[in-house]
Write a structure and sequence with these properties.
Four Helix Bundle (Hemerythrin (Met), subunit A); 3-stranded mixed sheet; 3 strands; metal-binding; DinB; metal ion binding; DinB/YfiT-like
Length: 171
Amino acid sequence: MTNTQPSIQAALGQELKHELALTRRLLERVPSDKFEWQPHPKSMKVGTLASHMANLVGFLEMSLQGAETDVLTVKFPDSPTTTDEVLRRFDVNGENIHKALEQVDDATFHDSWSLRRGEQVLFTMPRAAVARMLVLNHLIHHRGQLSVYLRLLDIPVPAIYGGSADEAPQR
């Protein structure tokens, strides 16, 4: 009997493609002139949140490049200051992760990856958990936040997993 199950990276790639498309629809609606707006003093500014979302996917790519990453040695790009810059960064990170996924096999996702800050290990987890928890779940969490921000700014919220008050579900 042959195994007809998709590989982990194929299944992950398909899920990422879907989730990134949904996320991009939200990011497209963030107006550059509202980047400094925040709904509460304890909340992130909308531009900071959008930038964070654009960068999140990069952590999966980082995890596929070696057994650990030291954030003190990573040159993180400057924060975007416009919606177009956020979208460019998001698109590049999305393309890069799909290319990185093509270069690995299922065993890679069972191996652990550590995020360090110098000598301090921030965490260690299997790459499959990096994909699910650090990237996808984290991105979906922030997508929920950004949806609320858009509503509070009276910007139409796109349909995500069904319709919104502003838009019918995508078919």
